[in-house]
Each structure stands twice: as C-alpha cells, then as structure tokens.
Target: Peroxiredoxin
Amino acid sequence: MPHDPMVLPDDLPVPVDDGACAHLTGAVVPALSLPSTSGEPFRVDLVPDGAERLVLYAYPRTGRPGEEPLVPDWDLIPGARGCTPEACAFRDHAGELRAAGATVAGLSTQDTAYQREAAERLHLPFPLLSDASLELTGALGLPTTQVAGMTLLRRLTLVIRDGVVEHCFYPVFPPDGHAARVLAWLREHR
Model:
C-alpha cells in the first residue's frame, strides 16, 4: 500500500518538552522577509493588515501521496509525522482563526517550489514560508533536527504580536488537532 501522508499511525510517538523553545516567549522577531508560496516575500515580524496576530506554525516537511517517507523510520521520530494533517487543520480552521484576529502562515526549511506544490494540492488559503537558508531559524534559535542530511524544523507554533513572540506552542501533539488548540488559545486571549 502506498504511503499516505494524511493518515497518522495509532502508535505515533509523543514528543516531549525538552526546553528547546523556552527562550522564545517574549523574543523580538527579526525584521526578515522569507520567500513564500504567495510569490511575494513575507515579513515575519509584521502582522499583516487586518489582523492582530500572526500565527506562524513550523513543521519538518510535507509529504506527497505515494511518496515514501524521507527515511524508513520517519514515523518513529517524535514530532516528525503529521505535517500534512496539521496544514489541513489550519486550512479547515482558517475562517475561525481570522475571526479570532489571526493571520496564519506555515514555515519549513523546504524550498518554495516544493512548498508551492503542497499549498496548491492541499488548497491552503495561507502562504507557506521557506527558511531554506535557516536565517529565521538561526536568528530565533528555533529547534531543528537532522534527518537524511537535511536540517528540519521541529514542530512548533509562534503567536506573534507587535513584532514579539507572545506565545509559543511546543511540543505540538497531536498535529492534526493543533489548529483547534491554537484557536482556543486565541479566543481566550482576545
């Protein structure tokens, strides 16, 4: 049976909070523009017009239907599996997140061409941002992992307001229920 990135295994390992994001709440977000699937550079320190907050969710990498995982034991890496279901959950909650005052963008170290395919296939109403140069990752000290010779972001979500990280969700689990958790937090903190 071909690999389906939308289906999460029942025994997916739960990531633990190793403190790798403890420094992020209150951090000033650097004035960086990253390539995005919208075709326009995206400033990560600015909340787009019409919103109060930017929800920037970071993920290791999206997969494609029928494409084998990056490494055979991908499902055994805590927090690795679930990028596509997470993106779809943010897509499905996009209207509610907007109503709660947030604009959403995804972030990975994949290049924009790869991300564009995923954004189009999944009908994402928000951009995916590429940090292939690791510029934002390095500036904020975002946690990464090395897999198959690639530097991948660990799954986390930053809520950015007025150029500062207001809140950081880390670790993120389960990935397919995370957008609902972010939405609940936004509603509680209006």
Observations:
- The chain has one domain: 33-125+135-188.
